Amino acid sequence: MIHNELDAAGIHDPRLREAYRRCRRINAAHGRTFFLATRLLAPDQRPPVHALYGFARHADDILDSLDPDLGMDVRAQRLQELSDGFFAGADLTDHSVLVAVRHTARRYDINTAPFEDFLASMRMDLTITDYPNRDALNDYMRGSAEAIGLQVLPILGAVVPVAEAARTLPPSDALSSSPTSSGTSTKT
């Protein structure tokens, strides 16, 4: 099935095809529910969504490694290398996830700001274990949740510019203040 998806997405270069296949395997192995949800997308939308998932998963794996010898300084360095590889601007990397996500970002003209916000939140995960107030938590959630949605919008075919769509989204704190089934708010 991946061949049909890659063909539908117009991805014919062998190096790119392998990079997108790698992202799809990561998504299938680690994001089972998310992976199944991608089956609801049009075939040409699946590979770029897999690339975005692969990038986010790779960053998360850097942070959540169970290797006790991998200290915070090494994790920070690896996250910085991932960031540098993404923002390098040229296809100088052999890292298949970076090859696919950079191709996706270029092809769909995805603004770099959501990637910057995402990586900033990943850096917060290295040292912050508690947020002093709602604003600090909202800053984290903007990068860890909202940024992903903004990355996906161009792939889904947003009918308005992404910046305009972002302005119409509820603020990140709406994620923690939605009504519960009892009709009360979960916001503290």
List keywords for this structure.
single chain; 188 residues; mainly alpha; Farnesyl Diphosphate Synthase; 9 helices; globular
Task: Offer a quick outline of the entry.
This protein has 9 helices and no strands.
Structure in words:
With 188 residues, this protein is mainly alpha-helical. It has one domain: Farnesyl Diphosphate Synthase. The chain has 9 helices and no strands. Helix 2 (14-30) crosses helix 3 and helix 5 packs antiparallel against helix 7. It is globular. The model is unreliable at 176-188 (pLDDT under 50). One of its GO terms (molecular function) is transferase activity, transferring alkyl or aryl (other than methyl) groups. This is Squalene/phytoene synthase family protein.
Q: Unreliable stretches, pLDDT < 50, 5 or more residues?
A: 176-188
Rg of Cα set:
17 Å
Full CATH superfamily name: Farnesyl Diphosphate Synthase
Tell me the number of helical segments per DSSP (H or I, 4 or more residues long). 9
Q: At CATH's second level, what is the architecture? A: Orthogonal Bundle
Mean pLDDT: 86
CATH topology: Farnesyl Diphosphate Synthase
Order of helices and strands: HHHHHHHHH
Strand content: under 5%
Give the CA-based shape.
Answer: globular
Protein name: Squalene/phytoene synthase family protein
GO molecular function: transferase activity, transferring alkyl or aryl (other than methyl) groups
Region (Disordered): 169-188
Pfam families: SQS_PSY
Helix and strand topology:
Elements: H1 2-8, H2 14-30, H3 32-38, H4 46-64, H5 72-87, H6 96-107, H7 113-127, H8 134-156, H9 162-168
Helix pairs in contact: 2-3, 2-4, 2-6, 4-6, 4-7, 4-8, 5-6, 5-7, 7-8
